[in-house]
Amino acid sequence: LAFSINYYCMHDGLPKLCLRSKIKQKTCYMLDYSRNACMHRTVPPGSILPWRFFSCKEGMELPSKMEQNISITTTELLYKNLLKSEQKNWNDISARYKPMTKRIKKKLEELHKKCTFSLGSPRMKFGENVYFEENGCVFLSKADDDEGNADILFSTEDVGFSDAFIQRIRISPDQRYMAVSLKSENSEEATCVIVKLGRFPVVEKVIPSVFSFEWATNDVLYYTSQKNLKCQNVFMTTFTNQKQTKLVYTEQDARFFVDIYCTKDRRFLTINSNSKTTSEVWLVDCRDPLKLPALVQARTKGVLYHIEHRNDELYILTTYGEPAEYKLMKAPVSSSGMKNWHLVYALEKKTRLVDLEMFSDHCVMFLKNAAHLYLNVISLVSHSVQSIKLPTWACNFELESHLERSTSTCYFQLTSPVHPPKRFAYSFKENNLIEQAVQEVPITTNCHTTRLLAKSKDETLVPITVFHNTNSKELHRKPLLVHVYGAYGIDLKMSFKEEKLMLIEEGWILAYCHVRGGGELGLSWHKDGCQHNKLKGLHDLKACITLLHKLGFSQPNYTALAATSAGGVLAGALCNSNPELIRAMILQAPFVDVLNTMMKTHLPLTIEEQEEWGNPLADEKCMKYIKSYCPYQNIKPQSYPSVFITAYKNDQRVPLTGVLRYVHKLRRAALDYASSTGKKGNWIPRIILDVQANGSHCDSSWEDSLNE
């Protein structure tokens, strides 16, 4: 190996570096208390003050400082006792399933080997040089050379952090420097390592807590710093003879998140400040990167926009104008204000823009409509549009990197939950789609894909994607796993997973409910399911499950509901309102206490997410509305389905304390109902919590995911 940090620290006078301490977050209990915040806030009955977690008497006097400290100590003790109790419960229960676990794990490993074929890791081509990453190492090879002759430029293990993975790589235009971000699965923050390339690569600089970064020129790097899940500062650092680092931009509004992007032609670097509904972009001229950034268009409430560049014109992807869906517009660089934006192409109604890629003379849009995938190729010369419907089994795009704008082919991969990635290419010269048969791909041929529409409470048609084994008979007797998300305008995750394929092979039916609040039918679909419309997502989910049963896809006693993160809101709400529709519920890092979380403005995401859930502190109607569907608030003694929850100790987005409280309250309600009915042999649901020491908010390695 060409270098090591310790070696160059000794010989080049650099301070000794320990990346582990900079990247890996210390294990801690995510307690949501605050000694000083929210002291004079009026709270509704049933809510929990920041320094109290498990019980609270309304109308009591504010505690003194000493009493607060005692309360915090009591909270920590209660938290530790609850966690200890749940871990013991998990150890006792999981032991019973060891034979089943062993069988499933073996089958998943077999499927992983069978389906993980090598399409090759992403390649970055610079002239004759090709850079690529494999197994925590960055390699350099010549374009015509065998990759067996590649040189190692960088290794995570060699810099003292073997359990980190490489998240992003950026090579400077003259290839003298390489910036690499390293991320631990136990932390949301990454560390950026800048390496000076050459015969003996040298670590030049280490920057902790970095989110995004781009080279403006050969020796000027821009980056954003991340703290408590927020990115609000942009810095510039130079690697010239006079090295300097300075603050370039600061975002003052807590609702906005800042990242950096470099246009495809490397003409501009864009500083993008986005909230859930509004954008503002500043341009850094890569020909003069020390010059102050220039504003494209001041933020306008409700207008999102993103910037690309071609031939002295800005191409603007924006929601400006009616309808409030994405459109491609353009304007001169010299007069970039909104009044000069001219329409190039507008999306059809109920169409979701998944991704966009700019080439020298073409713009490629990846679109989704009613869960079907399309490719629209727009000629930037003739403005003609070529629309291609992709295979019906495909549910997910993955665009490959195209560093050279002048390339004549666009490469991408298609997958579904039960179909491994398959590579495709669109040729601009031939105007056709080509399937890339790199090697034999084990596509599941005995899996049938069905598209359905369920009529919701207000007559809105909600798409459902269903997979089942074509050889299955008597589908009403088969087990059904229903998936839901419905938040932030984000689509349900429908990329390939070995466990989904295993379930199909074992006779299960898989259903994906594309309810409002998600983004499957465009921005209006999200808007129609957030804030004061959140209950529409719940009505959609109920309608989807009811239709599946009506059409003979399983029945309530064989139905399980699965959700992750914010999807836990709708899943948990259905569990309270219509528990008779399902027999089991599986949640991963679930957001189940909306009201109490949105009352705590000191938490890192609360203010930013008011555009999704509303602000209960400022609006009493909003408070009552959230309370009407919040899973934690609506637990009551009744017959519940069995529940399995996976949570993470290091989760910064959904702190473990809230999940513990939810499990504790749900189990008590289920036991209270069983004891109150007094019937012999009354079924008591099994409520299980598995707390993972590794991983951070649904971000697990293959090994940890396999164990889960």
TrEMBL record:
GO cellular component, one term: cytosol
SUPFAM superfamilies noted in UniProt: alpha/beta-Hydrolases, Peptidase/esterase 'gauge' domain
Gene Ontology molecular function, alphabetical: serine-type endopeptidase activity
Pfam families per record: Peptidase_S9 (PF00326), Peptidase_S9_N (PF02897)
Intracellular or extracellular location(s): Cytoplasm, Cytosol
Gene3D superfamilies, sorted: alpha/beta hydrolase, Prolyl oligopeptidase, N-terminal domain
UniProt function note: Serine peptidase whose precise substrate specificity remains unclear. Does not cleave peptides after a arginine or lysine residue. Regulates trans-Golgi network morphology and sorting by regulating the membrane binding of the AP-1 complex. May play a role in the regulation of synaptic vesicle exocytosis.
Protein's UniProt keywords contain Lipoprotein: no
Occurrences of domain Peptidase S9A N-terminal (ranges): 83-432
Record's keyword terms, sorted: Cytoplasm, Hydrolase, Protease, Serine protease
EC numbers, comma separated: 3.4.21.-
InterPro entries named in the record: AB_hydrolase_fold (IPR029058), Pept_S9A_N (IPR023302), Peptidase_S9_cat (IPR001375), Peptidase_S9A (IPR002470), Serine_Peptidase_S9A (IPR051543)
Chain ranges of the Peptidase S9 prolyl oligopeptidase catalytic domain: 495-671
Name this protein carries in UniProt: Prolyl endopeptidase
Protein family membership: Belongs to the peptidase S9A family.
GO biological process, alphabetically ordered: proteolysis
